[in-house]
Amino acid sequence: MSGYPEPDSDSETQALLRVAGSETVKPYSSGISPVTLISPVVLVYRLATILPSTTTFFVVNQFACRLWYTLNDPGSIPSDGGLSTEQCSIPGVQKTFAAIFTAISISDGLGSVIGYSAASLFASRYGRKPVTLVLITIAMGHGLSLVSSTFASGWFELIFLCTWILCGSFAQPPVFGFAANMFIVDLVSAEERTATISKLNGWSVFGGAISFTVGGAITTRFHNVLVVYYLSAAMFASIWVYVFLLIPESFSKEKRDELRRQRKAKAQEAEVSVAGSRLDKAKHYLIRTVVPEPLKEFKPTRNPVTGKRNWRLFYCAVHIIFTQLADAYGAVSMVLFLTAKHNYEPSETGYVLTTLSLVDVFCLTLIIPLLVRRILRPYHLRAKPIRTSSRGGEISETSDRLDVHIAVASWTINAIAYILLGYMNTRITQILAIILLGFGCGGGPVARSLVVATVHPLKQGDALGAVEMVSSLGTFLSPIVMGTILTSTISTFPQLVFWVHGAIVVAASMVLFLVRDSDRYQEEDDHED
Question: Where are the transmembrane segments (predicted)?
Answer without folding.
Answer: 131-152, 158-188, 200-220, 226-247, 313-338, 350-372, 404-424, 430-451, 463-490, 496-515
